[in-house]
Design goal:
alpha+beta, Structural Genomics Hypothetical 15.5 Kd Protein In mrcA-pckA Intergenic Region, Chain A, Pseudouridine synthase, 3 domains, ten-stranded mixed β-sheet, four-stranded antiparallel β-sheet, 6 helices, globular
Length: 315
């Protein structure tokens, strides 16, 4: 197979014993649609114990080794879609968007519609081309169910500048989250610093690791507490995948609604995590920018039910 651009390797643990092959792979590669996984299996891109397996319903067992090859991107057209965008600010170089929850940032693995990129392409023709046609304008990303501020580059020069700033940690991001549990008086603020890498037991998850990870730093500050829950601001110095979610779990305060690193709650549809604030000095015009993004209704509703005062975060 000469057209392979990426691959995933898994070893089946007890949790997935006798589970269908397609269902297992879908649970491990969360960016991929079920139909895309089925297509990979049908077209011989999946190996089970070093042998091609093209049966979607094949039951796997503990210890099985699975290799999923990802072919080069299909020659697909990413189409503009008339999807509402919450524009916080825009100039000739970048657009700042308050991304709604339940929206994927860019197309991937067979999921080519309904993304932020589709909406951006409808809104403007001025997007950087650095990341190709799949990710025009995209400099950084947020998880599907994390809402809040995301920067989009309108030209290649601004894309390069913004990407360098993210790399140099001169763009400062602050998140707001509701977590489970209350903090002791001596732990109302703190710094979490460790390595984060793929969870060896479940590739869909990230985890704190002792080696083969990347440094991750989060600074948290408790804003309010009610019985059983806390409202917390988290300023990140690095931007690792699922960083805040992993870090809050690591101090026994998982984010409310986070079914991957915490537990499900019938009253909460997604993790209560919002990219609230973005501060940086723009090297293009040498101006200081300070932005905040209002919370979405679902976050506000949950916060009110828990009796938090969030008036300052609604503006």
């Amino acid at each position: 197979m000469e057209n392979i651009k990426n691959f995933f390797e898994f070893v089946v643990n007890e949790e997935y014993n006798q589970v269908r092959l397609d269902k297992f792979i879908s649970s491990q590669i969360d960016e991929a649609t079920r139909s895309y996984i089925e297509k990979l299996i049908d077209e011989n891109y999946v190996l089970l114990n070093s042998k091609v397996c093209n049966k979607n319903g094949k039951k796997i067992k503990v210890g099985d080794k699975i290799l999923v090859n990802i072919p080069e991107d299909e020659d697909v057209d990413i189409l503009p879609e008339n999807i509402e965008l919450k524009i916080v600010f825009e100039n000739d170089d970048f657009i700042l968007i308050n991304k709604k929850y339940d929206m994927v940032v860019h197309p991937a693995y067979g999921n080519y519609t309904g993304t932020l990129v589709n909406a951006l392409m409808y809104y403007t023709e001025n997007l950087s081309s650095v990341n190709g046609k799949i990710r025009p304008g995209i400099v950084h990303r947020l998880d599907k169910d994390t809402s809040g501020l995301i920067l989009v580059a309108k030209n290649n020069n601004s894309h390069a500048k913004l990407a360098t700033m993210f790399g140099d940690k001169t763009i400062h991001k602050t998140y707001l989250c509701i977590v489970k549990g209350n903090f002791s008086s001596e732990n109302l603020q703190g710094r979490i610093e460790n390595l984060i890498g793929r969870d060896v037991k479940d590739r869909k998850k990230m985890a704190i690791v002792e080696k083969n990870g990347k440094i991750a730093i989060s600074n948290y500050k408790v804003i309010q507490q009610v019985e059983g829950y806390s409202l917390v601001e988290v300023a990140i110095e690095t931007g690792r995948t699922h960083q805040i979610r992993v870090h809050m779990k690591s101090i026994n305060h998982p984010i409310l609604g986070d079914t991957v690193y915490g537990s499900a709650d019938k009253n909460v549809k997604r993790q209560m995590l919002h990219a609230y604030k973005l501060d940086f000095k723009n090297p293009i015009d040498n101006k200081e920018y300070n932005f905040t993004a209002p919370l979405f209704d679902d976050f506000i509703d949950i916060a009110k039910k828990l009796k938090f005062d969030i008036e300052d975060y609604k503006k």
